[in-house]
Amino acid sequence: MAESGDGPKVLIAGASGFAGAIAARLVQEHPVFRLGPITARAEAGQRLVDLYPQHRVGAVLEELDLDAHAEQADAAIVGYPHAAAAPVVKALLDRGLKVIDLSADFRLRDLATYEDWYGEHPHPELIGQSVYGLPELYREQLAGAQLVSGPGCFPTAALLGLRPLAAGGLLADVVIDAKTGVSGAGRGLSHATSYVTITDSVSAYKTTGHRHRPEIEQELAVSGSDVKVTFVPHLVPVDQGEYVTCYATLSARVSADEIAARYAKAYADEPFVEVVSGPPNTRGVRETNFCRIHVQVEEHTGRVMVFSAIDNLWKGTASQALQSLNVMYGLPETAGLLPGAAGSVGVTA
Questions:
Q1: Rounded to an integer, what distance in angstroms lies between the CA atom of residue 14 and that of residue 343?
Q2: Is the residue at 87 inside a domain?
């Protein structure tokens, strides 16, 4: 582990991906954390700024060397695909680092469910050790955690949108219509393919079952509403941003005023969730850690409609990881994520 100094050093494994690059930028700009090694496979030897000039991270990408890099860091953010992430996470934990995994490897608590959706798990023994990295739901468990699993971007938007209803056991049925920009597909989607197939077009995908559905159902059940969810994602012609519309049928009659009061109470003290008076848009949350939510009751059917907007690469992935890392180290959640939020308290080991 890194020598004690000004603040914990953070390794970014997989920094050449969209979310990994943003994580490197946020750590570099953080008032307490220090940017440790940043790694990549194919791009090793290149400067991150040459891949992503907008992030202004001049460090050189290195090929991951677990022994050497673990000695230079106190914590790690791992931006690998599922199955590839788990062995790296295990190795870093064994070397004493705190780890935030951005993949799906530790999001699902039930091994059989994971294997139904993702295949054989490389390290199933770690599933029970992970904390789900949504601070608004798991703040107490994140404090001092060693392993945190970053939520999927769709579950982040959906769960924050539905939390005040789920917590009261009010959800009887939920239909989630989700829309995401092309960055949600990662760098694997070629520029030529994305331009030709996405521009001036909107399309649904994985309509018979998206991997984020069991994650959403799992967390709704933990919150108090054990429901089956209809979840349909759509690809829209923007580079980043995510918009989720939830249509909820309630198990009991609740007035519009009471529902509004539930949302106001649930998020009154949350620094990154804003309940707004009208449907939000993705531009209003771009390159921020904010989730903006609007809720209303449709008089014609009695359904509750919840609109939730986030940046899929920020609150949906990278900046949420930094928010969790702040909590893990006992720092203000807003440190490095809001102007002037410079974390004035000591770091918890």
A1: 27
A2: yes
Other CB atoms within 10 Å distance of the CB of residue 291: 28
User: Any idea which residue has 């998206």 for tokens?
Assistant: 210
* Full DSSP string of 96-143: T-EEEE-SSTTT-S-HHHHHHHH-S-S-GGGGGG-EE--HHHHHHHHT
Q: Do 60 and 129 fall into the same domain?
A: yes
Q: Examine the domain organization and report whether 243 and 135 are in the same domain.
A: no
Instruction: Tell whether 104 is covered by a domain.
Output: yes
Q: From residue 178, how far is each of 230, 297, 338 by CA, in Å? A: 11, 19, 27
> How many domains is the chain partitioned into structurally?
2
Indicate the helix (H) or strand (E) that contains 48: helix 48-51
The residue behind tokens 């393919």 is: 193
Q: Is this prediction's pTM over 0.85?
A: yes
Domain hosting residue 103, numbered range: 9-150+317-328
Residues known to be catalytic:
153
Pair 184, 101 in one domain = no
Per-residue pLDDT of the chain (349 residues; tens, 9 = 90+): 776 568 999 999 999 999 999 999 999 999 999 999 999 999 999 999 999 999 999 999 999 999 999 999 999 999 999 999 999 999 999 999 999 999 999 999 999 999 999 999 999 999 989 999 999 999 999 998 999 999 999 999 999 999 999 998 999 999 999 999 988 666 555 444 566 777 889 999 999 999 999 999 999 999 999 999 999 999 999 989 999 999 999 999 999 999 999 999 999 999 999 999 999 999 999 999 999 999 999 989 999 999 999 999 999 999 999 999 999 999 999 999 997 655 445 566 5
Same domain, 126 and 265: no
CATH number of the domain bearing residue 163: 3.30.360.10
